[in-house]
Automatic annotation (TrEMBL):
Residues 7-358 form the FAD dependent oxidoreductase domain. Its EC number is 1.4.3.19. This is glycine oxidase. Keywords: Oxidoreductase, Thiamine biosynthesis.
Length: 385
């Protein structure tokens, strides 16, 4: 094992908890700091582990990372309790002819990347999922896209961390503690308590940019991209409503229906940049309308919850992951893991590995340098170790 370090991880969403878990598994001491673990984007997330069906055209530079992270998931889940992990695959459906053309473009992009996708006739799609509308214009299967229940996963990670002796501090981090030479030596909490650490990992989403003590030249251009998301209970007579995750494009708008083991489904998710951090009536209407276009029996479900949370977006839709430079090179003791936008749950194992490797002084593969958190800064000096 590498020399034992103490990591202070700020932020207890899936990303922060995953980093803490990976460090604890490697034998390091860990303290996680968050006033309300699992209550941010993790609380809303549908938990799709879907590098194939979430291959957005502008995000192809993310594919190697998302695929690697998806591959790491089974190992990442080792030793955790129930997480709702399901490997049944994702069915992608098009509503009208224009949606079919758009999804055919996506399928061609997926095939060009060597990803597994299987075109389905309407009959084949409905044989797989009898509740699908007979009016859909096209469908394909992404058998390698899986899903997890993020609320169950964050609870399982918190349990596992407590079992491994990690500290969970339910307070807000106010500032980085820095030595006279600029090294980050830990975190100062909102009550003035100081937590000393060898490595401080900033993994608190949009809050990362708000912390006092970050390098003055560091620009973390995070922006909130709100998603409305619904949880509905499927009456016994209709179970299972769907077995696979069903994603669709309905008159150009994306929607997904994700089945949970407890007899509920999660329907999401809008993308709003209107600054409104409460569920939007228009968003909820759009989700119910479009989910019903794919699966008409959605109208018969019981609406249990409407939630809204912000995804931490970045200008290039890629994460801010790794060390950051100041005038003398990389700031010792500081790691950043934020800006995961739509892929926080999926990318948690990759973020965990990168941060644990960096904390241990291991080299990070050259292709990950493109995700350096300081790539938008006024000066970008230093190099990833
Ligand atoms: N990854 C799904 C979403 O952000 O809505």
């Amino acid at each position: 094992m590498a020399v034992q370090k103490h990591l202070a991880v700020v932020g207890a969403g899936i990303v922060g908890l995953g980093i803490a878990w990976e460090a604890a598994r490697r034998g390091h001491r860990v303290t996680v700091i968050d006033p309300a673990p699992g209550s941010g984007a993790t609380f809303a997330a549908a938990g799709m582990l879907a590098p194939v069906s979430e291959l957005y055209y502008q995000e192809e530079q993310l594919l190697a990372l998302t695929l690697e992270s998806a591959r790491r998931y089974p190992d990442f889940l080792q030793g955790l309790g129930s997480t709702g992990h399901q490997t049944a695959g994702t069915l992608v459906a098009a509503f009208d002819a224009a949606d079919r053309l758009a999804l055919e473009d996506l399928r061609q992009a997926q095939l060009a990347q060597g990803l597994r996708v299987e075109q389905l006739t309407s009959r084949e799609a409905r044989r797989l999922e009898p509740a699908l509308s007979p009016a859909l214009s096209g469908a394909f299967l992404a058998p390698d896209d899986h899903q997890i229940d993020p609320r169950a996963l964050s609870a399982a990670l918190l349990d596992a961390l407590a079992g491994a002796g990690a500290g969970i501090v339910r307070r807000r981090a106010a500032a980085l503690a820095r030595s006279g030479t600029g090294e980050v030596t830990g975190v100062v909490l909102d009550d003035g308590t100081r937590i000393a650490a060898d490595e401080t990992v900033m993994a608190n989403g949009l809050g990362t940019a708000l912390l006092d003590g970050l390098p003055a030249s560091l620009r973390l251009p995070l922006r909130p991209v709100y998603g409305d998301i619904l949880r509905l209970r499927v009456p016994q007579a209709l179970r299972p409503l769907v077995r696979l995750t069903v994603r669709g494009l309905v008159r150009g708008l994306p929607v997904y229906v994700v089945p949970r083991e407890d007899g509920t489904v999660v329907i999401g998710a809008t993308s709003r940049e209107d600054g409104a951090d409460a569920p939007s009536a228009g968003g909820v209407y759009q989700l119910l309308r479009d989910a019903q276009a794919l699966v008409p029996a959605v109208a018969e479900l019981q609406l249990e919850e409407t939630t809204c949370r912000a995804r931490p977006g970045t200008p290039d839709n890629a994460p801010l992951l790794g060390r950051v430079a100041e005038s003398e090179g990389d700031v010792p003791g500081l790691l950043v893991a934020t800006g995961f936008f739509r892929h926080g749950v999926l990318l948690a194992p990759a973020a965990a590995r990168v941060c644990a490797d960096l904390a241990e002084g291991l080299p990070v593969p050259a292709e990950l340098l493109q995700f350096r958190p300081d790539r938008f800064s006024t000066s970008m000096e230093g190099s990833q170790r």
